[in-house]
Write a structure and sequence with these properties.
Helices cover 31% and strands 22% of the residues. The protein is built from 11 helices and 15 strands. Strand 1 and strand 2 form a beta hairpin.
Length: 367
């Protein structure tokens, strides 16, 4: 953390610059920062010179190598995908989980399994539709609640504000599922010198993500085409589909992604992480294969739980073909290069990378 930085600095450097990810890490830790839908605002300066809000934010200065060492015990050797133990294709064996979840259902299956085993006592999740289009955080305290949060929404949500709220009463062995920016914020919370309930999080599951949408613009767009209250599911199929699929009670409607891209949050353009590199285990789709996930196991604890889930028949795996692994690596590298390029456009200096603190050797790989 940089000395002497607080809410006014967060407002100046992040919120006013359009770089907020809406992760929620700064919300519900003090009375002076609020979130409405996906918009975060400082409503009153708190006067604290060294604030948690600035410390936790995924768009304030972050020493990537230091986080690697803290989480994995060493710096990563793979600049595209970060630290990992294994990468496989996987799917939930339970057909009902796969039906209700997005693609292979690995996240839902693994959460249900670890809760039933008592490995985690609760999980902070994001409910895709909470009485409308806007997703909302939800604490699942029973494994039967997990599937209520299955599926994707694509709108940024302040999930970590929910974690901050529930962790005011100390809990141990909590699981969290989040996007890369949320996972980065969570790891900064755990590494912070400040007291935070995030230190009671045991299992961190990260989702692959290329971008998230701003609520207002996307909602207005959809409202001009259909009744948003009728939406049951959103999906962006793997390439080369290049469409957004909206399932409603009245049927299915498809929109070209080019009509949607204008609603992508500006901060996504400077995001350096597609595969949630600081999670214990990361999960995404498999390009060109329906009903399967790509699973990146990153920590020894995640490996233990994942192998146990396989042995107990909860999850089935297959090798990820070299060609598909190559495509994943290429996509991740491309996102990093685009992020660095966008940051340099903003700063005008190849060494001034906003929130990213990278070594000269690491930085040179993406310029």
């Amino acid at each position: 953390m940089e000395v002497g930085k607080g809410s006014l600095d967060l407002e100046k450097e992040v919120l006013n610059e359009g770089l907020c990810t809406s992760c929620g890490a700064c919300v519900d830790i003090c009375p002076y920062i609020k979130v409405v839908k996906d918009r975060v605002a400082v409503i009153e300066p708190c006067g604290i010179a060294e604030g948690k809000c600035y410390d936790f934010c995924p768009r304030t200065p972050t020493d990537i190598a230091a986080l690697d060492r803290r989480i994995f015990g060493k710096e990563h050797s793979d600049s595209a995908l970060g630290s990992y133990i294994s990468i496989e294709m996987a799917q939930a064996r339970d057909s009902e989980v796969r039906r209700r979840a997005q693609y292979g259902g690995v996240v839902s299956a693994l959460l249900k399994y670890t809760m039933d085993l008592g490995e985690i006592g609760a999980a902070m999740l994001t409910r895709p539709f909470d009485g409308g289009l806007m997703p909302a955080s939800m604490l699942a305290e029973e494994s039967s609640q997990v599937l209520e949060c299955a599926g994707s929404n694509y709108i940024a949500s302040a999930t970590l504000s929910g974690l901050n709220k529930v962790m005011k009463q100390p809990r141990d062995a909590v699981g969290v599922v989040g996007l890369p920016c949320q996972i980065l914020a969570l790891r900064k919370m755990q590494a912070s010198k400040h007291e935070t309930g995030a230190k009671g999080v045991k299992l961190v599951i990260g989702l692959f993500c290329t971008w998230a949408l701003s609520y207002k613009g996307f909602y207005e767009f959809l409202r001009g085409k259909l009744d948003p209250s009728l939406i049951k599911r959103l999906d962006i199929p793997p390439p080369p589909a290049n469409i957004l699929v909206v399932d409603t009670e009245a049927g299915t409607i498809e929109f070209p992604l080019d009509e949607i891209r204008g609603f992508v949050k500006p901060t996504c353009g400077i995001c350096f992480d597609m595969t949630s590199e600081f999670a214990d285990i990361s999960v995404g789709m498999v390009e060109g294969v329906e009903d399967w996930n790509t699973v990146v196991v990153r920590t020894a604890e995640a490996e233990r739980l994942f192998e146990k889930a396989k042995a107990d028949g909860i999850i089935e795996t297959r090798p990820l073909e070299e060609a598909r692994l190559g495509h994943l690596r290429e996509a991740s590298l491309l996102k990093k290069k685009r992020a660095i390029s966008e940051i340099v456009k903003r700063t005008g200096d190849e060494r001034a990378l906003l929130y990213l603190r990278l070594s000269d050797a690491e930085r040179s790989k993406f310029l």
